[in-house]
């Protein structure tokens, strides 16, 4: 009874280690620049989009260019994740404004409307 179980455990261990071998050709992952605030995320998005644009404008991408693209995508991913999270919150606030406007709650419209505008002004300048 113990032998089939040991064979199963060994098979799982081998398959997991084989999966890790398959990924061994991938470069180590970096963290990129953080995007802790919406303003920082928008700034990083703008700066790193410009860097990506410059690299893409080259005739051919060499190994160093590919590495640079790889590394800057981490910062871009961080920025987009922060922007997406903040936009979800902003959409919820706008919905509060929408509902307050339908239900004749001017104080809620004013308060939540300002919160909405403050958030979106970071995106739209």
Automatic annotation (TrEMBL):
Residues 1-22 form the signal peptide. The lineage of its organism: Bacteria, Pseudomonadati, Pseudomonadota, Gammaproteobacteria, Pseudomonadales. It holds the Pfam family DUF6746. It comes from Halopseudomonas pertucinogena. Keywords: Signal. InterPro entries: DUF6746. It comes from the Bacteria. This is YbgF trimerisation domain-containing protein.
């Amino acid at each position: 009874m113990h032998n089939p179980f040991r064979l199963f455990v060994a098979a799982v261990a081998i398959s997991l280690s084989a999966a890790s071998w398959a990924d061994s050709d991938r470069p180590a992952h970096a963290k990129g620049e953080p995007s802790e605030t919406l303003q920082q995320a928008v700034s990083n998005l703008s700066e790193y989009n410009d860097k990506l644009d410059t690299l893409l404008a080259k005739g051919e991408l060499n190994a160093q260019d590919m590495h640079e693209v790889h590394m800057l995508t981490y910062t871009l991913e961080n920025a987009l994740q922060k922007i997406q999270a903040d936009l979800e919150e902003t959409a919820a606030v706008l919905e509060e404004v929408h509902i307050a406007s339908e239900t004749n709650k001017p104080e809620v419209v004013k308060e939540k409307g300002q919160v909405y505008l403050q958030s979106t002004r970071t995106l739209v300048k």
